[in-house]
Amino acid sequence: MADRERVIAYRVAAHQFDRATADAARLRVFDLGLQDSERSAVPALAARLETVPPLDGGAFTLTWTVRGAPHWHRAGEVPALAARLWPLGDADAVARMNRPPVTEGLRVLHEVASALRDVVTGPMTKGEASARLTPLVPPEVTGWCRGCEATHVHDPVFRLAVLPAGLRFDPAEQTVTFVPLEHRREVPARAEGFGDLVTDYLRLHGPAGYAEVAQYFGAPVRDVKAAWPDDLVAISKKSWLPADRVDAFEDPPEPEVVRLLPPLDPYLNARDRDLLVPDEEHQKQVWRVLGRRGALLVDGEVLGTWQARAAGGRLDVKVSPFVSLDVDMFAEEAARLARARGLEEAVIS
After folding, report:
1. Of 223, 96, 218, nearest in space to 160 by CA
2. Fewest CB within 10 A of the end CB: N or C in the chain?
3. Phi, psi (5° rounding) for residue 114?
4. Of 216, 212, 203, which is closest to residue 249 (Cα–Cα)?
5. Which of 73, 52, 53 is closest to 63 using CA atoms?
6. Which residues pair with 125 in a beta bridge?
7. At 312, is the pLDDT very low, low, confident or very high (cuts 50, 70, 90)?
8. What digits encode the pLDDT tens for the residues 110-154?
């Protein structure tokens, strides 16, 4: 295999698109968390599992984590995740808070998270939590919100504080509602275990280097480099893998799968987009800023996009291939996705 072909084949296998795993909790995507923006989690699981289990049954926890986005994590791993995702320095904290006018980013974030932890002692909506939190935090991280017609903590700061405050979402509520984690810990004093997240990223999205990992977690490259694990294996001058994944990289299976990947699927969240989709015009379609679309994955290559709309008990899936493709090849995947969404049938066009 050529270098790019080997990387693609390795990642397709690492993402477990072969559906050989029946237990959702054993999917590697949960090592980093499964993003659930725009209802992306269920179709991402449908691309990896024969049967998609309910995520709100207690085995998984939903909260704001990586890049301030909602992610599902294995429930038992969430309390320790707060220290792993804690910013690596003041500059990192300020950047993740969307650069409020502060210099001591870690101290300010600790104050906000500690106040939020004290405020939310039982189920509480985001609006109520925000109203109670705002007068308790430095004014530099608050501002007037025209939509709410109120002064409150800036949203990026609020999102960053939720996990270290020991809070999760109640998935049964339509409005964002927080619930304290069981056995929640004190707000972290420092980052601990970020190297484990680096290793998890490389197992799933490797081989990769400092820049890709930094962009994924929203951290400065220099801080990521300083926290880089010393037991990784260099695959090239700028990319590494964990030692236990080198053999899998050297001889990956052929990536013979056909999948409908949703927008924000973990496979598409790797940061080396030029490798995943070399054509720049195609990249613009796959990673649209507005009106996100899913990706057509055929034997490891992203060969187009798709959109879906539910109408009654039917899922209408419109595919837009970059090359000539028989759309019927996606019929089984569309039917599987419809079932995962609780619909009776799917139509491909």
Report:
1. 96
2. C
3. -65, -40
4. 203
5. 73
6. 177
7. confident
8. 999 999 999 999 999 999 999 999 999 999 999 888 877 788 899
Q: Where are the alpha helices (DSSP H) in the chain?
A: 3-14, 29-32, 41-46, 78-84, 90-96, 105-119, 126-133, 155-162, 194-205, 210-217, 221-226, 246-250, 273-276, 280-286, 331-340
- The pLDDT-based confidence of 234 (bands split at 50, 70, 90) is very high
Residue 337 sits at the vertex; the CA angle it makes with 261 and 347, to the nearest 5 degrees, is: 105
The residue written with tokens 């989690």 in the block is: 41
Q: How far is CA 168 from CA 9, 152, 192, 280, in A?
A: 35, 20, 20, 38
308, 337 in Cβ contact below 8 A? yes
Which tokens belong to 236? 């090239």
Report d(CA 187, CA 115) in Å as an integer. Answer: 10
pTM for the predicted model, two decimal places: 0.95
- Provide long-range contacts, Cβ within 8 A and 24+ apart, for 179-182: 179/122, 179/123, 180/120, 180/121, 180/122, 181/61, 181/78, 181/79
Inter-residue contact 263 to 40 (CB < 8 Å): yes
Tokens standing for residue 151: 């002064």
